[in-house]
Amino acid sequence: MVSGSHGEHPRHPGEPPGLSEATIVGRAQDGDLAAFEELSRRYQGPLFRLAVRLLSDRGEAEDALQDTMITVWRKLPSLTDLPAFHGWVYQIMTRRCMSVLRTRARRSTDPSGDDTFLDGVGRGRLGSGTGGQDPAAATEYAEQLRGLNAELARLPDEQRACWVLRELHELSYPEIAFATNLPLSTVRGRIARARQNLAKGMEAWR
User: Fold this and answer.
1) What PANTHER family does the database record attribute to this sequence (predicted)?
2) Do 168 and 78 belong together in one domain?
3) What is the CA radius of gyration of the chain?
4) What is the pLDDT of residues 67-88, one digit of tens each?
5) pLDDT at 8
6) What does the longest C-alpha to C-alpha distance in the chain come to?
7) Is this structure's pTM higher than 0.85?
8) Which of 64, 108, 179, 201 has its CA 20 to 30 A from that of 133?
9) Which range of residues forms the domain containing residue 176?
């Protein structure tokens, strides 16, 4: 049985008025393939970006996404708190990625070197105040992205996972605790340490 209270999420663009995500999840639980396809359409992009950011390997990210969607379909009937679907899906993907990272560490293998932790992130999400048409500002922004990517690569996997879920995927602290199976205090501590490490590391890129 899977449950959890992670708050309501806004209606997605294009979603018919009155048709909540929980309703679509319920239909998918009843075997409505069209409903599950709609959920897959919404989540595959964000989940793939999460996997790339955590694994820094697009091939492994694709495998993790496929495994996650299979698990979601297989375990969907056990989800009792339908509004918790958002956090539940992120939990499955996060745990799958952390399992891959643990296996990689035991084998002492390195990722392919993609280091695309910030793939798909816009200027506004990272708080850039530079103008979009200014070549000098664009160059500075690109340099900052390279620096942040480099510093993210240096973080411990557990810190990076919590930071990515919070800062790039905008999950709440309770959702991150649910996704990572960690106490809320541990999540807060890891995000705080990640922010400190990133701020210190980025001094050299300023």
Assistant:
1) RNA POLYMERASE ECF-TYPE SIGMA FACTO (PTHR43133), RNA POLYMERASE SIGMA FACTOR HI_1459-RELATED (PTHR43133:SF8)
2) no
3) 18
4) 999 999 999 999 999 999 999 9
5) 37
6) 55
7) no
8) 201
9) 125-206
